[in-house]
Design brief:
Layout lengths: L1 E6 H10 L3 E5 L4 H10 L3 E4 L3 H6 L5 E6 L2 E2 L9 H5 L8 E5 L3 H7 L6 E4 L4 H9 L7 E6 L8 H16 L3 E2 L1 H12 L2 H4 L3 H8 L3 H8 L8 E4 L2 E4 L2
Parallel strand pairs: 1-8, 1-9, 2-7, 2-8, 3-6, 4-6
Antiparallel strand pairs: 4-5, 10-11
GO molecular function, one term: magnesium ion binding
Catalytic activity: (2R)-O-phospho-3-sulfolactate + H2O = (2R)-3-sulfolactate + phosphate
Pfam families: 2-ph_phosp
Length: about 230
């Protein structure tokens, strides 16, 4: 079993062409919000554009952000703590559109499996892949980044997943090994003061940082089935 690291939409497309299972990592905050929604039993429809989210028929709730700010007229912003504290209808259909994460999920179309991962479910995602549940021997963990640029929080969360995959017997390529080293060596305080963290703080979303950086607190594995992210755990 082999695992690699890739970045952004380009990395997701390449992984899908290579026949790898794709894990989309947007730690601040789409993958974390998706994990919370999955734990609540919601059906999550990830879409790239705000227009598609706004016009999607049959949605119980709409969640969206651009530039980390809630999309006007939507029910929630892309905030895991806001969603965690909300009472959602059982089995609710939630349409989600974010600046980076949902675009990368869309780019992974055609992969044999598309999962979402973050710090909060790193072990759960890696353990399920290692269990053989998805019948793949190659995994690509994709850090979404921010508008085409590196995002240290995504690299670090990807490193947490890759570290666990290595513990479960996966061989890592050189780039994945480097991401694991960065995860192990990078202090959490550096993630709390990077540009993404500062942007959330300015917007009053400091509580999301604590939630997003807590490891293995939401042990679910969202998987794309058709156009819906669901969790069977």
């Amino acid at each position: 079993m082999f695992a690699v690291y890739g970045a952004g939409e380009k990395g997701a497309r390449r992984a899908a062409r290579d026949g790898a299972a794709v894990v989309v990592v947007d730690a601040f905050r789409a993958s974390t919000t998706i994990a919370v929604l999955a734990r609540k039993g919601a059906l999550v429809i990830p879409v790239a554009s705000i227009e598609e989210a706004a016009t999607y028929a049959g949605a119980d709730y709409r969640i969206g952000e651009r530039g980390s700010k809630r999309v006007r007229g939507f029910d929630f912003g892309n905030s895991p703590t806001e969603v965690e504290g909300a009472e959602l209808k059982p089995g609710a259909t939630v349409v989600l559109s974010t600046t980076n994460g949902t675009r990368v999920i869309e780019a992974a179309n055609g992969a044999p499996a598309v999962l979402t991962g973050a710090f909060v479910n790193a072990h759960a995602v890696a353990d399920e892949l290692a269990s053989g549940a998805h019948d793949v021997d190659r995994v690509a963990v994709i850090g979404c980044g921010w508008e085409g640029r590196r995002a240290l929080e995504d690299e670090s969360a990807a490193g947490a997943i890759l570290h666990r995959l290595r513990e479960r017997g996966f061989e890592l390529d050189e780039r994945a090994e480097r991401v694991v080293r960065l995860y192990l060596d990078r202090p959490e305080k550096s993630l709390r003061r990077n540009s993404a963290a500062r942007r959330l703080t300015v917007l009053g979303n400091e509580s999301d940082l604590d939630f997003c950086l807590a490891e293995n607190t939401v042990p679910v594995v969202p998987r794309l089935e058709g156009d819906v992210l669901v969790s069977r755990r």
